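Ticket #4471: structure output looks truncated?

Reporter: J.K.
Steps to reproduce: submitted the chain below (117 residues) through the standard prediction queue, then opened the result file.
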Amino acid sequence: MSSLPKCPACSSEYTYEDGAMYVCPECAHEWPKTAAEGAEDDGHEAGREFRDANGNVLEDGDSVTVIKDLKVKGSSLVVKVGTKVRNIRLVDGDHDIDCKIDGIGAMKLKSAFVKKS
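Returned output as attached by the reporter:
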């Protein structure tokens, strides 16, 4: 049997090494070798704070309002100023908010373009 860890996303046993990363061929999830085995992955680093444009701390499940017209990449749609987004989910990355917007669908937003409602 392999001594490689199972995939934290789908629990697949078929992971492999690629440089300094582990890769899951079933779900395409990648994670660094330095990550602690068995550590719970809640989507973002422990202790990292996500803040809106006004400096308020954001949490999973909050409602936010868009403060600037945002063009949707790859389409002619625009998220208008004042659009209310409910039940956000915080994730690591450049765009740190996962959400669903009525009439547009699933999107990722930057916390700098929203304010807490």
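Triage note (M.O.): checked the attachment and the full token line is present. The chain has two domains: 1-39, 63-116.
Status: closed, working as intended.
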